[in-house]
């Protein structure tokens, strides 16, 4: 680090990966763990924001009714709750795969193991990256929406935790790879892995359990990007396709999250009402 110098005088060290692949070790192991940490922080912050918004909407009177009894505010709270449920469900589905594969990633993309195992490791690698870039962006928007339910109280730090969570979410969006860097990394990874994992097959496996027509459409879009990369020129068409790639990655992961949420159901994450006022959310 440029801010510190440490001398390991006589210390015992243990290799965490191949000693001739330092950068690959950092990217494959250290960054992956940091990105997992960022994702659970995003899920936790969104869940806290959802609970705060729902509780306040059930408690606060405005213009003769509870906040949650006004249609627009009610819909906004529902969106905050659903987004947090979707984020948390997606995280645990990815973390389950992470545990199945030994709780760590290998350095680099290729290893001396069966193709099927290589594919599972690659799938996990990309899910961790995509989860980080999508949930970091979503957390900022969802916490901001939750703050709006509180009105002026939403920005007062000694009234709720939401302002602090909002600042933390902004940091999560930038550290361990900002959005543009990660979008480029996913595109490059898919190209490098195409010899053992064609993009359409990758999308089919990633979206296992999703509606077939949506999975097929995602696979088709992936193959179109692979055949005509959007990042090789600087013109209006390339800029349009670069934006389309960003939208595609987000669409893919949102569908993955929705599939995960359908598998577990929303109730274990946030109940239909935390104060017994279920009629507000029917």
Report on this model:
The protein is mainly alpha-helical. The chain has a domain at 23-195: Butyryl-CoA Dehydrogenase, subunit A, domain 3. It has eight helices and two strands, in the order αββααααααα. It has helices spanning 22-59, 71-100, 115-149, 162-174, 179-193, 199-206, 212-227, 236-264; strands at residues 61-62, 65-66. Strands 1-2 form a two-stranded antiparallel ribbon. Strand 1 and strand 2 form a beta hairpin. Helix 1 (22-59) packs antiparallel against helix 2, helix 2 packs antiparallel against helix 3 and helix 3 crosses helix 8. The protein starts with 21 loop residues before the first helix and ends in an 18-residue tail after the last helix.
Question: Which structural traits does this protein have?
Answer:
single chain, 282 residues, mainly alpha, Butyryl-CoA Dehydrogenase, subunit A, domain 3, two-stranded antiparallel sheet, globular
SSE topology sketch:
Layout: H1 22-59, E1 61-62, E2 65-66, H2 71-100, H3 115-149, H4 162-174, H5 179-193, H6 199-206, H7 212-227, H8 236-264
Antiparallel strand pairs: 1-2
Helix pairs in contact: 1-2, 1-3, 1-4, 2-3, 2-8, 3-4, 3-5, 3-8, 6-7, 7-8
Task: Give a summary of the structure in a few sentences.
This protein is mainly alpha-helical. It has helices spanning 22-59, 71-100, 115-149, 162-174, 179-193, 199-206, 212-227, 236-264; strands spanning 61-62, 65-66. The chain is built from 8 helices and 2 strands.
Distance between the termini: 53 Å
Give me the count of strands.
2
- Strand arrangement, largest sheet? 1-2
Q: Which class of the domain at 23-195 in CATH terms?
A: Mainly Alpha
- CATH architectural category of the domain at 23-195: Up-down Bundle
Count of helical stretches: 8
Q: Which residues form runs of ≥5 with pLDDT under 50? A: none
Question: Strand content of the residues, in percent?
Answer: under 5%
Query: Can you tell me the overall shape?
Result: globular
Q: What is the H level of CATH, i.e. the homologous superfamily of the domain at 23-195?
A: Butyryl-CoA Dehydrogenase, subunit A, domain 3
Structural class: mainly alpha
CATH topology of the domain at 23-195: Butyryl-CoA Dehydrogenase, subunit A, domain 3
- Output mean pLDDT: 87
């Amino acid at each position: 680090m440029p801010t510190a110098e440490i001398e390991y005088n006589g210390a015992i060290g243990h290799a965490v990966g191949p000693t001739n692949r330092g950068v690959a070790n950092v990217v494959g192991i250290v960054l992956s763990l940091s990105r997992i940490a960022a994702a659970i922080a995003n899920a936790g912050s969104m869940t806290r924001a959802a609970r705060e918004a729902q509780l306040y909407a059930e408690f606060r009177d405005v213009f003769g009714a509870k906040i949650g009894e006004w249609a627009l505010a009610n819909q906004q709270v529902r969106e905050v709750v659903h987004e947090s449920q979707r984020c948390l469900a997606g995280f645990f589905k990815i973390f389950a795969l992470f545990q199945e594969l030994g709780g760590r990633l290998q350095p680099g993309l290729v290893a001396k193991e069966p193709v099927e195992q290589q594919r599972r490791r690659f799938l996990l690698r990309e899910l961790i990256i995509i989860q980080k870039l999508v949930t970091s962006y979503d957390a900022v928007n969802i916490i901001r929406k939750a703050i709006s339910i509180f009105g002026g109280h939403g920005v007062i730090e000694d009234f709720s935790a939401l302002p602090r969570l909002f600042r933390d979410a902004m940091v999560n969006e930038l550290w361990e790879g900002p959005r543009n860097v990660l979008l480029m990394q996913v595109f490059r990874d898919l190209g490098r892995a195409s010899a053992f994992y064609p993009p359409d097959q990758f999308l089919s496996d990633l979206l296992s359990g999703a509606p077939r027509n949506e999975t097929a459409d995602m696979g088709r879009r992936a193959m179109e990007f692979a055949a005509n990369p959007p990042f090789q020129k600087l013109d209006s068409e390339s800029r349009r396709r670069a934006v389309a790639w960003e939208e595609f990655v987000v669409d893919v992961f949102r569908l993955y999250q929705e599939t995960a949420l359908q598998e577990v159901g929303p109730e274990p994450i946030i109940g239909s009402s935390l104060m017994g006022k279920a009629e507000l959310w029917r």
